[in-house]
Write a structure and sequence with these properties.
Number of domains: 1
Bound molecules: beta-D-glucopyranose
Strand order of the largest sheet: 1-2
Number of strands: 2
Strand content: under 5%
Number of helices: 12
Largest sheet: 2 strands, antiparallel
Helix content: 40-55%
CATH architecture: Alpha/alpha barrel
Distance between the termini: 36 Å
Length: about 350
């Protein structure tokens, strides 16, 4: 099969995987056939909804946004706003996950508001989504400076920079969706904080004020969130540091990663490619697409990670023994592939836009 045909097939399979991941309530499961990930992560789901939207499945994205909106409003009902804590993941039916995994992760709600803002462009928000967006935006406006678990569900006592970037994107979207409010002042403060982080090392560090290492999740500040401008040297510095320390096009999460041996993640390769493209380098973006294509199984499924250049080979077997093989297909791997292929213009949505559900 030619490279173009493989990418087109991967696009089709990706949309099928995303559609299969949607629960009757509208949630988007993180993985198919991997019981540990049978939940709806707000982080994963927001990127998946955005991928569905760009691929012409606004209906699928709308159902996800309605799911999150209902779940947020259910949790907020009858509560003092100050006592509200929103979870990182939900059960398939919209109840919060109470299995004991680290739940206080702020990035998901920044990402959700960002994705909702994209979905609302040109057509506005329904009443439930608007009310839930106010609730989530007010929550983020209060809580954005708090230490929380990072996008890899690690840490907990520090302030992850990728989370700060997601907060900036979400507060910005809230200002656009809802007009001026407490989120507008929070946006200015969060932006100033992000600028201060960038000026310390000339790139985004893993933590705002702790670990000064490199974390590939910070790439989302360049694209698709676009909270750093394309001519900001901090964007160039971040991309270069990821390449140097975490590899490219096979990108690792961070140097301390031991999960399944600490392999390279297709979704991070896509984020690296999207970042390179935004900074004016389509060649690197194409290299990312090529690497992701090669990482797909014969059925066209993308895994969470590949065993390429494991950072800690000895820790692969214990994870496999505990949880089985790496999650495949991982739905947000497919979402990030769609975002990259769409940005590169190598596949255009074939399906006519469907009306919102
Ligand atoms: C990752 C999270 C992700 C979750 C579900 C975890 O292993 O660290 O970023 O949200 O899997 O995909």
């Amino acid at each position: 099969m030619s490279a173009t045909a493989t990418v087109a097939r991967l696009w089709d399979v990706s949309l099928e995987v995303i559609a299969r991941a949607q629960t009757p309530a509208g949630g988007l499961l993180a993985a198919l056939d991997y019981p540990t990930y049978r939940y709806v992560w707000v982080r994963d789901g927001s990127f998946i909804a955005e991928a569905a939207r760009v691929a012409g499945r606004r209906d699928l994205a709308a159902a996800f946004h309605a799911f999150v909106a209902r779940s947020v409003l259910d949790l907020a009902r009858g509560r003092e706003p100050g006592s509200l804590t929103l979870p990182a993941r939900f059960e398939a039916d919209g109840r919060p996950d109470e299995s004991g995994w680290p739940n206080f992760q702020l990035d998901g709600y920044g990402l959700w508001l960002w994705a909702l803002g994209r979905q609302a462009q040109g057509q506005g928000l329904g009443p439930t989504e608007r009310l839930a967006a106010r609730t989530a935006a007010a929550y983020l406006a209060r809580r954005w400076p708090d230490p929380c678990f990072d996008p890899w569900e690690e840490g907990g006592a520090t302030r992850p920079t990728a989370t700060l970037a997601a907060s900036v994107a979400g507060l910005h979207a809230a200002h656009g969706l809802l007009g001026p409010g407490p989120w507008s002042e929070a946006l200015e403060a969060a932006r100033a904080d992000l600028r201060a982080v960038g000026s310390r090392e000339g790139r985004l560090t893993k933590d705002v004020d702790g670990d000064a290492g490199v974390d590939a999740a910070t790439l989302w500040a360049i694209a698709p969130l676009e909270v750093l401008s394309a001519d900001d040297p901090v964007a160039t510095g971040t991309l270069a540091a990821v390449e140097r320390q975490l590899g490219a096009p096979a990108v690792h999460r961070h140097l301390g990663d031991t999960y399944y041996g600490g392999g390279a993640w297709p979704l991070l390769s896509a984020l690296w490619g999207l970042g390179a493209l935004r900074l004016g380098d389509p060649g690197r973006a194409a290299a990312a697409l090529g690497w992701i294509r090669a990482a797909a199984t014969n059925e066209g499924y993308l895994p969470e990670q590949t065993a390429e250049g494991l950072l800690d080979p000895a820790s692969l077997a214990p994870w496999e023994a505990e949880r089985g093989p790496v999650a495949t297909p991982l739905v947000w791997s497919h979402a990030m592939f769609i975002l990259l292929a769409h940005a590169l213009g190598v596949v255009s949505p074939q399906a006519p836009e469907r009306p919102d559900a």
